[in-house]
Amino acid sequence: MTVSRRSLHGPHCPPLDPDNELIHVDCACHTYPDGSVGIHDMCFSVRRNEIVALCGPNGSGKSTLIEHLNGLLLPSPGTIWVNGRTISSGEQAGLWKEVGLVFQHTEDQLFAPTVLDDVMFGPLNLGLSPDEAKARALKALDLVGASALVNKLPNYLSGGQKRLIAIAGILAMRPMVIALDEPTSDLDPVHAAMIEQIILDLKGLHGISVVIATHDLDLAARIADRVCLVRDGSVFAEGPPREVFYDSALVREAGLEPPMTVRTWTDYCEAAGIVTDEYPLHHDELVRALRRIG
Amino acid sequence: MSSTPLSSHIPDFDLITYYAEREGTLFSRISPWTKLCFLAFLIMVITISRNVLLLAGIYLMVLLLFGAAGLPLRKLFAWYLLPVVFVISLVGILVWNEPGVPIFSLPLPGLTLTLTMSGLLLIVTLLLKALISVTFSLFFLMTTRYQHLAGMIARIFPAPLDQIFLMAYRFLFLTLAMTASLLKSVRCRGGGLLQSIRMQGRLFAGIFALVFIRSFERGERVQRAMSARGFTGSYTVCGEVPRPILAEYGVLVLMGTAVSYLAALSFLGVTV
pTM for the full model? Predict the structure, then answer.
């Protein structure tokens, strides 16, 4: 797989692999009431059992795209397929069952008086009985390692704990795709690592595809199977993280800086005059590469 | 959302929720319906009664209940500021020159204000009535889980009034949290509520208005987050509200009889 580039005003992009694509966005546009463009000719897809990272600077359209995946926003014009079904006006109502959304500001998501009530909110909306909803909520809290918080008040939790509860609230609904908006922003390293591991487990243990919207390229480099660079409301390049992030010009074109590991390795090789075909993406790989070259 | 209370004199809804969800005392296990009926009976009694001793007795009983439930009495006394100011602002003028035994007079240019025993009793009576209703309402809220409260509202009010009530209750949390963060930002730069009003009245008013606009925006974001989890305008009430047990029915019958008796006496012109 190599990096594929797309013109910002490119042609339609119908699903190429419908059997493997859970979500497909074809030339979706969204303009906010004040005239600002949220997304424009956006082409994007989510495949089975993958972690895809939407990387772009603030205001590039990542959050707007994520809200389209859940049916909170509808493209106009443009088309979205979810699980082989075309989503049009009026049909987006049940989309929340298939695509879960974890908001960037968890304060907006956690509204119920207790953690348990909040995590049960989604399952109850699915029509489950209170007992079933409670069982699901407890299981979800257990999966994110937050069982001890079950009777706590969301307002009294730390930012990291709130993020865990927000993820549990979505996980309890058992969607096939979970989209997380800036999942580790504002978190301390310990909680960020916890969230990172949970994202990996969602894919690895539960077979859930994950979309993360982030400008933390180090995070994307560590966990993503595929990276989509977003600029001006459109995905203009996508590919495996190793290939995308080692194309510094491409990353900078998106208004971003390559991940720290990539910059360190590139600068080191340049300074030492080393020509190598090794491309470490994260810390462990970097350490191993440095050891090898002595 | 801030977990710092807005002011020690404004009821802290997070703390109220904390006590309600903790379900730590016997009173949390009493049926919410019993407590609601008790509140209704209390309101009827304090509406009928003008007897200071009876009202003082009821107030003492309610206060004991509040303390026995392990609820924070010191916070309660701090929260009394608003009801006390409310009562005084209502009857502060009316208490003067009431007919009755004068206690003291205040000569002013052109008129003399006289505080009589009746005037004093009027303000004490109204204060007791306000404090009884505030204390028992807080007792009810602090010993009743939100899910039970939501269940009761869903039973009592028809749709969509119940939804409006439930959402408004949660919206109150947002507004208070927003106001608390505003006040925090004022305080952290050396300001205070009173200082800011005096020194930068216009600016403060502007910011205060912004709080409401931002609360609406925040409410909209919360609504979107709820929609993302399947909310379609109807809050799903989870579980049954516990019904009163036999002993609770007994207490309610006794209380109902006592209220009816007082109402009958009042109807016959006897001061109760």
Answer: 0.81
